[in-house]
Amino acid sequence: MKKYLKVWWIFTFNSFQSQLLTRWAVLLFLISKLLRFFIFVVFIVLLLNKTNTLASYTLNQTLFFFLTFSLIDSLVQTIFREVYRFRPAIINGTFDFYLIKPFSPLFRALATGPDIIDLILLVPLFGAIVYFMIQLNISDPLRVGIYIFLIFIALIISLAFHILVLSLAVFTTEIDHAILVYRDITGMGRFPMDIYREPLRGILTYLLPVGIMMSFPVQALIGILSPVLILYAAVFAFILLFAAMKVWNISLQHYSSASS
Amino acid sequence: MINKYFSIFNISWQNMLIYRLNFVLWRFRTVLQFLLVYFVWWTVFQTQTSVFGYTEASILTYVLISALTRAIVLSSRIMDIGGHISEGGIVNFLVKPQGIIGFYFARDLADKLLNISFVIFELAGIYFLLKPEIIIQTNINILLQFILSIVLAMVLYFALSFAFGLLAFWLENIWGIYFLFFMSIEALGGGLFPIDILPERFANMILLTPFPYLLYFPAKVYTGTLGYDQLMSGFTILSIWTVISWVLMKRVLNAGLRMYTAVGH
């Protein structure tokens, strides 16, 4: 564990240094992400000022759904950014070098290129989350605890999806944006799952499972999620992670180096 | 002359068909993005009959047509130019009897045609599955105006993207600029909501930029809800931006090629 922390820190330091080589590009990315975030907030505020509710959620609740989505999305982007660089590593054969290093190739492919831009964005996001918790009169420590637990579950599910994307890149080089498909699927969680019509709502909530990742934490926080669904979320996450690990191991057995 | 660019079009088309699964997944992504916007508006109209002056039919028509417009206008491979410059591939255009602009334009047309052929099936599928109440435009004049707005928007997007991509002649990393450009289109283009739901002052300011003319304006033209003055001012601003962008693109290209030095094999 200590070795992995040390390796992670070295890679993280190098990754941040590399990103900061073009500071103006980091600034442009940051401005762009803030612009996207801001326009969604403006849209929600304008819309809810007219309609008062969206799928029976108030303005503050709807904003909290969006903030929670943004928090989970930024956390995932910060931690698992290296996944975006994995397919080129397979194509040009760099993955061979991952395999001969004395630490897990999965760790190398997943977590060794954190994104400094999303890390910066996390700071105001945490502030906004706390602010809206106060606005929503959330003071029950149990609900806050379950909210944090479900965000952890969302990260586990996301980890499983990222492992599946890595495995897919080993199996086939035909798909060059599988990770963006994951992002677009989870992007449907910017708003509560209740906006979708059945059967799409059920598929998104329980199978894909955008609802578990993005909506369950907020629903638990405002006290409308049953304990059974909290248990379902936890069991689902760990089964998915277990399955993803199996698929990753199988994909490694199928790997044939491209470098030669 | 035409044969040369038709061959580029043909090769690009076949090239895209090699990675079919990749393309299908790309289209799947755009359907997901569409569903989010569609269902937000659909939910709003479960409890309202009119919001921001839009009825359910007019807003869902706007959402569907802006999705179609997105597939036509924004489907492009022009961003490859940055990589071609920084990796030296641009040298090919200096030694071969083909124009750079013509080459990328022919490639873009192939990309657009493939996207259009998919989006028609997607929208038809969505229409039959969700059965939204939408406006089917039958006025020939409006349909002609819609086609004109789409053509101008295509040229505008091509020229703007190309000009941004050409900055690779001077900059090592152009992805920050591209990302800001794409996010500006996402935020100010009208893909998430029609620009006219914003407070009038902000909407008028945004309408002076090129972004709303890529999605919002063509979709509004189709709905037939723009008055004569709005239509005229819209087409005027769109035309001015298209000309400015085209001239800018040509100047940046000439300036870039003048200072470009190739090294290597």
From TrEMBL, chain A:
InterPro entries on file: ABC-2_transporter-like
UniProtKB keywords: Membrane, Transmembrane, Transmembrane helix
Keyword Cytoplasm, does the record have it?
no
Q: Where are the bilayer-spanning segments?
A: 21-48, 54-76, 116-134, 146-171, 203-222, 228-248
Superkingdom of the source? Answer: Bacteria
Cleavable signal peptide: none
User: What is the protein name for this chain?
Assistant: ABC transporter permease
Species name: Candidatus Daviesbacteria bacterium RIFCSPHIGHO2_12_FULL_37_11
Q: What is the lineage of its organism?
A: Bacteria, Candidatus Daviesiibacteriota
Automatic annotation (TrEMBL), chain B:
Q: Which InterPro entries match?
A: ABC-2_transporter-like
Segments spanning the bilayer are 21-45, 51-73, 112-130, 142-169, 175-195, 202-219, 231-249
Q: Which UniProt keywords apply?
A: Membrane, Transmembrane, Transmembrane helix
Task: Report the PANTHER family cross-referenced here.
Answer: SLR1174 PROTEIN, SLR1174 PROTEIN-RELATED
The protein depicted here goes by the name ABC transporter permease
Query: What species is this protein from?
Result: Candidatus Daviesbacteria bacterium RIFCSPHIGHO2_12_FULL_37_11
